[in-house]
């Protein structure tokens, strides 16, 4: 295909980056504000007798929005490759903003019963559908305006804006918490962060309406080379299918679990496993996220000089080495008394039937009820199978304790030095945690920063929107979107606050192998 006759000016490229990044940030705010309020959403929409079950159901609903993203990728990818980049992501942001505002108008379980969580799931699915078209549109739009040697740098602002959406969701929730007491926040104040989406939608539409279509798509349309069926054309050869699979398992899946570890995983780890007070955990996680934004831009810029694949592989290797030690640093700083108590007086539960189902309102066995009690309190434990018929027994630091009621276990835990109340870390402790989050953020920046340019360069212009969006949203939707649910479920089942990290290790290891063998280097390629 001939070079596009029109080349955008620096001022126009600046507007493209600003509009795309702000729109992406606002759209991810809409999506992340639910995750930020997951603990409160669990009480309002999933008031299960078991608090752990309610929280896991709230996280599953969070993941459901990610689960439908591939459908949005197919729908809006098709429209983006057929009708154009600009108007497609105008539609996606309108759909996202409307669905988010609708969450703020929903009745709670107390007001509407089972209808409330059903409507919530519908809103989440609508959000996920819209988000399935957003990232691909923004990444392709910016990349198709960028000069060849600056594509990694320019598209890195799209990646950074995703972190900006997470930060904004934390900031708005914290502001509501500061202005309202707990009763008002739970009664009606939780709605405000969702309704704020209407303001963000108006700003996004105003900015994006100023944009023109990308020069690459204009040239394709003028030459009559727009794909008739982008979805079918994305899968019409083994080579194209191979690129899609590499993008899914080698790029999207691996980088997304690192990113979610730096954001939501650290937040839930602090709030649940480390018993840090919710607002304190949000402030710490938000500060770490804010300081991490520069990593994405730095590594996007470096990928123009040293290659996308090289940085991705280095990031994967470092993540495999550093993710466990970094979370141990966070744990030691967040609640040193709890960590010291766990090391000095480990909790061991033994019994002949210690089945534990985190979703059950009431556990079937006495041993399961003990595990449920410990799990709700975020207490790490080790489980030992006892001979058939043996009654359940709990030892703390080798000393057997009474298990007749919760009060007896609570008293024994307190006597052993376990702090069961929520805590607020000191400033030095908070700074240590922020430093650890910044370290994980660096790994996320190294793998995610160059990703938009890499994925755009991997696929031909005729089907670029569709071919990029499908593997990206399959990877981020399933490997990443369900990460909070999967990791918290593993923690609840095992009693080990660090056990969920093994899921991250497994997905990153898969990404490393696939990318190392089959991913080509794309830096320096010209977009046809």
In brief:
The chain has about 525 residues and is mainly alpha-helical. The protein has helices at about 10-35, 40-45, 50-65, 70-85, 85-105, 110, 115-145, 150-180, 180-190, 190-195, 195-210, 215-225, 230-235, 240-275, 280-305, 310-335, 335-345, 365-375, 405-415, 425-450, 450-460, 465-480, 485-495, 500-520; strands at about 345-350, 380-385, 395, 400. It has 24 helices and four strands.
Write up this protein.
The structure is a single chain. The chain contains 24 helices and 4 strands. Strands 2-1-3-4 form a 4-stranded mixed beta sheet, with helices on one face. The radius of gyration is 24 Å and the shape is globular. The protein is mainly alpha-helical and 528 residues long. Mean pLDDT is 85; it is low at 1-5.
Instruction: Please trace the helix and strand order, writing H or E for each element.
Output: HHHHHHHHHHHHHHHHHEHEEEHHHHHH
Assign an overall shape: globular
Runs in which pLDDT lies below 50 for 5 or more consecutive residues are 1-5
Structural class: mainly alpha
Largest sheet: 4 strands, mixed
Percent in helix: over 70%
Approximate strand percentage: under 5%
Distance between the termini: 6 Å
**Number of H- or I-type helical stretches:** 24
* Cross-sheet strand order for the largest sheet: 2-1-3-4
Computed over alpha carbons, the radius of gyration is 24 Å
Q: Quaternary state, please?
A: single chain
The mean pLDDT is 85
């Amino acid at each position: 295909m001939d070079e596009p006759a029109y080349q955008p000016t620096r001022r126009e490229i600046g507007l493209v980056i600003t509009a795309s990044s702000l729109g992406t940030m606002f759209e991810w705010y809409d999506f992340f504000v639910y995750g930020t309020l997951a603990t409160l959403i669990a009480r309002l929409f999933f008031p299960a007798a078991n608090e752990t079950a309610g929280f896991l159901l709230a996280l599953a609903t969070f993941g459901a929005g990610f689960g439908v993203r591939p459908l949005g990728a197919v729908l809006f990818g098709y429209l983006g490759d057929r009708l154009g980049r600009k108007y497609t992501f105008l539609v996606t942001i309108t759909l996202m903003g409307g669905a988010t505002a609708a969450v703020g108008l929903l009745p709670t379980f107390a007001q509407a019963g089972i209808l409330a969580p059903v409507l919530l799931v519908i809103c989440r699915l609508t959000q996920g559908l819209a988000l399935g078209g957003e990232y691909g549109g923004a990444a392709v739009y910016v990349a198709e305006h960028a000069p060849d040697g600056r594509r990694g740098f320019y598209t890195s602002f799209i990646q950074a804006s995703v972190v900006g959406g997470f930060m904004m969701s934390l900031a708005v929730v914290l502001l509501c918490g500061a202005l309202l007491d707990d009763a008002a926040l739970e009664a009606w104040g939780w709605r405000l962060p969702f309704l704020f989406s209407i303001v963000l939608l108006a700003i996004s539409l105003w900015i994006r309406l100023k944009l023109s279509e990308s020069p690459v798509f204009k040239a394709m349309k003028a030459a009559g080379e727009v794909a008739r069926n982008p979805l079918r054309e994305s899968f019409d050869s083994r080579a194209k299918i191979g690129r899609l699979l590499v993008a899914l398992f080698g790029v999207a899946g691996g980088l997304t679990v690192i990113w979610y570890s730096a954001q939501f995983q650290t937040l839930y780890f602090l709030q649940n496993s480390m018993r840090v007070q919710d607002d304190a955990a949000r402030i710490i996680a938000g500060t770490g996220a804010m300081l991490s934004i520069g990593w994405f831009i730095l590594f996007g810029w470096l990928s123009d000089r040293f290659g996308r694949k090289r940085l991705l592989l280095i990031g994967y290797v470092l993540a495999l080495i550093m993710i466990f030690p970094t979370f141990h640093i966070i744990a030691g700083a967040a609640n040193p008394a709890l960590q010291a108590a766990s090391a000095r007086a480990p909790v061991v539960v033994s019994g002949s039937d210690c089945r534990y189902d985190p979703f059950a309102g009431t556990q079937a066995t006495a041993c399961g009820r003990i595990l449920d009690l410990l799990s709700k309190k975020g207490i790490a434990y080790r489980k030992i199978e006892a001979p058939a018929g043996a009654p359940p027994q709990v030892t703390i630091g080798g000393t057997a304790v009474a298990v007749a009621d919760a009060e007896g276990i609570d008293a024994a835990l307190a006597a052993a030095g376990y702090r069961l109340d929520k805590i607020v870390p000191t400033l030095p402790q908070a700074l240590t945690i922020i430093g650890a989050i910044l370290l994980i953020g660096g790994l996320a920046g190294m793998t995610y920063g160059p990703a938009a340019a890499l994925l755009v360069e991997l696929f031909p212009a005729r089907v670029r929107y569709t071919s990029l969006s499908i593997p990206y949203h399959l990877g981020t939707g399933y490997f990443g979107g369900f990460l909070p649910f999967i990791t918290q479920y593993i923690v609840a089942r095992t009693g080990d606050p660090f056990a969920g990290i093994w899921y991250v290790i497994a997905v990153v290891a898969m990404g490393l192998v696939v990318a190392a063998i089959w991913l080509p280097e794309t830096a320096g390629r010209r977009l046809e």
